[in-house]
Amino acid sequence: MTDTKTPETAAPTTTTPETATPTTATPETARDPLNGLVRPELLALADYNAGVSLEKMRAELGLDRVVKLDSNENPLSCSPAVGPAMQAVQDRIFRYPDREELRLRAALSRDLGVGPDRLAFTAGSEDLVSILFRMVLRPGDTVLTAVPAFGLYEICAQHASAHTQKVPFNTDWSFPVDALIAALADRPRVLVICSPCNPVGAAITLDDLDRLLRAASADTLVVLDEAYVEFMDDATRGQHFERLKAHDGPWMALRTFSKAYGLAGLRIGYGIAHHPALAAAVYKVRSPFNVSATALAGAEAAYGDQDHVAATRDFVAGERDRVAAALRAMGLDPAPSQGNFLFFDCRRPARAVADRLRAQGVLIKPWHEADYRTCARVTIGRAEDNDTFLATLKRVLAEDAL
Ligand code: PMP
User: Fold this and answer.
1) CA-proximal residue: ligand 1, atom 3 (nearest)
2) Taking the C-alpha atoms of 15, 16, 18 and 23 in order, what is their torsion angle to the nearest 10 degrees?
3) Ligand 1 centroid to 126 CA: how many Å?
4) Torsion of CA 377, 126, 298, 384, to 10 degrees
5) Three-state DSSP class for 322?
6) Cα torsion at 101, 103, 107, 113 (round to 10°)?
7) Does residue 106 contact residue 97 with C-beta atoms inside 8 Å?
8) Is 138 within 8 Å of 116 (Cβ atoms)?
9) DSSP tag of 299
10) Cβ of 341 less than 6 Å from ligand 1
11) Cβ-contact 252, 274 below 8 angstroms
């Protein structure tokens, strides 16, 4: 994560506006390197909690092996077809990328059963959240979602001077559909349904999704964040999208190549819109070439290797069951998960548990939202990494001075 601290030591001369004469510079303006330019509500935002850099951790702990289970990446990496595909575009790298994303668009359009003009590609799906929110939110608007939630929804709402209404998950980790339906009566500008939900892991039932869709007015954009859809079991995978397709009101489904496709470092995701006009609006707001030629080539190759996606899904499902059983045996019931991660209650401040794990080279994500600060999310990693996590957690909990 970048250090956003104000450089207290910045020399006053570097903060003087070009047009100001030296005599008009006051000590006050000299102290603020931004000269009040940035909207104060943005400066007040919390930093996005992006997980810890592996390199930094290795250096900090002096360890060769760091077990990184805090960012929901693919433990099997990406398809072997990705490297050569990216290599193959190197001799064309002086040209701008294909802004129409023609080949990937055609493949997805065919498989999803929507016109190619209903797809919009972005630099990861977080980019799409940011673009969508900037597109539709007016100051004072509301984004409605369930909590605990992916932190970016709130941050992007704040960028647009909108506020986030968070409805707590039910105690059995089912989606709080009744409360969400009640809140939909106020016609929030956006409803975000994240399914499988980061961090909980639970997927919304099809009936619950239908109920929410029926309750949403045409003034509410329904965003179905399906970053983890490829990890879902065969019985339900893809069905939520089919229900959404039948919904009359405005909607967008969000997908990414960062998770099951193993391309988090490449930055490419996409949205599927209810209508071409919504996809076209994304292209008006998006920076024109934000999906690089390499990302496009890598994503095409990864999408072409569905065997790798299936192998990832099977591997993750098996390890997820194993880790969940081990957590249960420690008395830490994880929520039911269809993602590549588990969310569990440590029954003590999760930050303290995560700090102790971190000191031993194991990274997990303690949750920071009020009412969930005893909970943590752990990514399903390779078998040996999961073993290390479980053994270290057991030791840490036995210390019990937390
Ligand atoms: N949505 C959810 C629910 C996520 O968990 C993430 C990443 N953690 C994203 C969107 C964004 O992923 P990316 O920008 O890498 O596509």
Assistant:
1) 198
2) -170
3) 6
4) -10
5) helix
6) 50
7) no
8) no
9) H
10) no
11) yes
In this predicted structure, the answer to whether residue 155 has a pLDDT above a threshold of 70 is yes
Average pLDDT over residues 182-210: 98
- In what helix (H) or strand (E) does residue 343 lie, and over which residues does it extend? strand 341-345
Instruction: Say whether pLDDT at 128 is over 60.
Output: yes
125 ligand 1 Cβ < 6 A: yes
Ligand 1: centre distance to CA 184 (Å): 24
Q: Which atom of ligand 1 is nearest to the CA of 258?
A: 15
Q: What is d(CA 367, CA 295) in angstroms, rounded to the nearest whole number?
A: 31
User: Is residue 220 within 6 Å of ligand 1 at its C-beta?
Assistant: no
- Choose the residue to mutate in 258, 290, 367 for probing ligand 1, maximizing ligand atoms within 8 Å of C-beta: 258
Greatest alpha-carbon pair distance for the chain in Å reads: 72
Strand partners, 222: 191, 251
CA separation, residue 261 to residues 291, 303, 373 (Å): 16, 7, 30
Residue nearest to atom 2 of ligand 1 (CA): 227
To test ligand 1's pocket by mutation, which of 125, 156, 261, 365 has the most ligand atoms within 8 angstroms of CB? 125
For the entire predicted model, the pTM comes to: 0.90
What's the pLDDT band for 24 if we cut at 50, 70, 90? Answer: very low
Map tokens 């005599």 to a residue.
23
Asked if the peptide bond before residue 7 counts as cis, ω within 30 degrees of 0, the response is no
Which amino acid is located at 117 in the chain? D
Q: So what's the pLDDT on residue 278?
A: 98
Nearest to 299 by CA among 130, 102, 115, 131: 102
Q: How far apart are the first and last CA of the chain?
A: 27
* Nearest atom of ligand 1 to the alpha carbon of 128: 14
Whether the upstream peptide bond of residue 148 has omega within 30° of 0, thus cis, is yes
Minimum mean pLDDT range among 32-46, 65-79, 256-270: 32-46
CB 368 within 8 A of CB 350: no
For residue 144, list its beta bridge partners. Answer: 165, 191
The atom number, within ligand 1, closest to the CA of 150 reads 3
Is the pLDDT at 341 greater than 80? The verdict is yes
Atom 1 of ligand 1, nearest CA residue = 227
Instruction: Compute the mean pLDDT over every residue in the chain, rounded to the nearest whole number.
Output: 91
Atom of ligand 1 nearest to the CA of 228: 3
- Check if 227 has its Cβ closer than 6 Å to any atom of ligand 1: yes
Ramachandran angles phi, psi of 68, nearest 5°: -100, 100
